[in-house]
Amino acid sequence: MPRHLRYLMIIIALSLLCSEGRAQEKVDVFAVGSVLPVTTPISPWLSEDPAFEVTLLPTRFYDTEEITADDARRTLRIYFPRNDQAMRDYDCVLFSGGDVRFFEARYIQMIKRAVESGVGAATDMGGMSGPLHPSWIASGIYEIFPNDVLAVSELWNKGISHDKVFSIKVNKQLEYNPLLPFVSVGIERLIGGRTRIILPMEGSTSYGWMECQAYSGYNFASRASASVVWRYGEGKTNAFEAFLGHSWWSRVIDPSDAEYGQDILINYLLDVSDKGYHTDIQMVHQYRQSLSDYHGRYSYIEDLLSFVGRFGANTNPIDRQLESLGEELSLSHELYLEGDVESAIEISRSLISELFEMEEDAKKARSRALMWVYVSEWLVVTATLMISGYVIDQLMIKRKLYKTTAHTRLGSS
């Protein structure tokens, strides 16, 4: 799109947003546990979506012994919300990895009071980590979630294993279900590994069920859920299947065919925050993918310019072009938040096209900078060769600097 036409579209879109005057709500997420990018995609998935702000509190790595008790407790003391009001300022709490080993009782109680007052909460694996579930149960945090962890623990103690291959079946009887939009994109055909068992509590609602051939011979007390919700006081909570770093959700740890993990998680978090959920999944998926492409391309160009700048190249024109994209990116965010996803996609794709042009300019600047490096190196090598050749010629071939040895008297006689 020509630049002047894009600016015209920006002016029109801004005027429409100002005339509508609608509040732009964001979802503020407090993510705790196994939340670093090396173990789960929580950080990039949520930070790249304009509707979300995420605070990460890592208290577990994939290897449960990789973080020490002292380090985890120190992190909690520094970064955990100071009081109930600070906790209630979040829209929802997201647990990943089922690890509360180092949480003081007051932290658990603060989270429970926040949920009772209306803060949402969600947990992967139904909260049940294989090696860490005893501390999850002992802490009492399980009480806010609709997974019967005591029954699940009893099954595990009887030898019924987890980490099995599974798929899910969406509950199509519900008119309101954040998983329904994913039926058309084949979510029921997706195979994941490393399942857990989630047994819904009485009074809960299952958005979908877990289907696993390995459990076909067992009679559970209730049909195992893939995602189950209920109200705990005023807050809504969701216990959903599998670890976010594993194959049903993402490619962080295992190979995976998952495409819509980010969209499913966002729908879950919107739901427990009582903000509805996205229904036009294909459209929002395209926009989120375009944002991911944009940020990836932008970072690459920044790295390229940093490299070129070390050789003295003038990168100011491209730097100014990069800075100018910020306003248009902010507009696409606003359009997305207002529900005009199609216009947001158009702007983001246009920005990506510009980034490709800037990348070509940056590569040309790199070629010019490196050319002078190559020329300098060639001159040094050539000069060294010429000097060495001259010295060798004078010393070894013409031998002008050597005095001819005279005959001695003894030799002449």
Task: Give a brief outline of the structure.
The chain has helices spanning 3-20, 42-47, 69-79, 84-88, 105-116, 133-139, 149-157, 261-272, 281-309, 316-337, 341-397, 409-412, and strands spanning 27-33, 52-58, 92-96, 120-123, 167-170, 205-211, 225-232, 235-240. It is α/β, with parallel strands linked by helices and 413 residues long. The chain has an eight-stranded mixed sheet.
Descriptive notes:
- By secondary structure, the chain is α/β, with parallel strands linked by helices.
- The protein folds into two domains: 26-274, Rossmann fold; 284-369.
- Helix content is 46%, strand content 12%.
- It has twelve helices and eight strands.
- It has helices spanning 3-20, 42-47, 69-79, 84-88, 105-116, 133-139, 149-157, 261-272, 281-309, 316-337, 341-397, 409-412, and strands at residues 27-33, 52-58, 92-96, 120-123, 167-170, 205-211, 225-232, 235-240.
- An eight-stranded mixed beta sheet has the order 2-1-3-4-8-7-6-5.
Provide the fold topology:
Layout: H1 3-20, E1 27-33, H2 42-47, E2 52-58, H3 69-79, H4 84-88, E3 92-96, H5 105-116, E4 120-123, H6 133-139, H7 149-157, E5 167-170, E6 205-211, E7 225-232, E8 235-240, H8 261-272, H9 281-309, H10 316-337, H11 341-397, H12 409-412
Parallel strand pairs: 1-2, 1-3, 3-4, 4-8
Antiparallel strand pairs: 5-6, 6-7, 7-8
Helix pairs in contact: 1-10, 9-10, 9-11, 10-11
User: Helical content, roughly?
Assistant: 40-55%
Structural class: alpha/beta
CATH fold-level label of the largest domain: Rossmann fold
The CATH superfamily of the largest domain turns out to be Class I glutamine amidotransferase (GATase) domain
Assign an overall shape: elongated
N- to C-terminal distance: 101 Å
Mean pLDDT: 89
CATH architecture classification of the largest domain: 3-Layer(aba) Sandwich
CATH class of the largest domain: Alpha Beta
Number of domains: 2
Compute the CA-based radius of gyration.
Answer: 31 Å
